[in-house]
Amino acid sequence: MIEVENLTLRFGGLVAVNDLSLVVRPRTIHALIGPNGAGKSTTFNCISRLYRPTSGRIRVLGRDVSGLRPQDLAPLGVARTFQNLELFGGLSVLENVLIGAHVHCGGGLRERLAARPPAVIGHVEHLLERVGLAEFRHAQASALDFGRQKMLELARALAIRPRILLLDEPAAGLRNREIGALDRLLNELVERDGLTVLLVEHVMQLVMAISHRVTVMNFGARIAEGTPAEVRRDPLVVEAYLGQ
Ligand code: ADP
Ligand code: MG
Question: Residue limits of the ABC transporter domain (predicted)?
Answer without folding.
Answer: 2-244
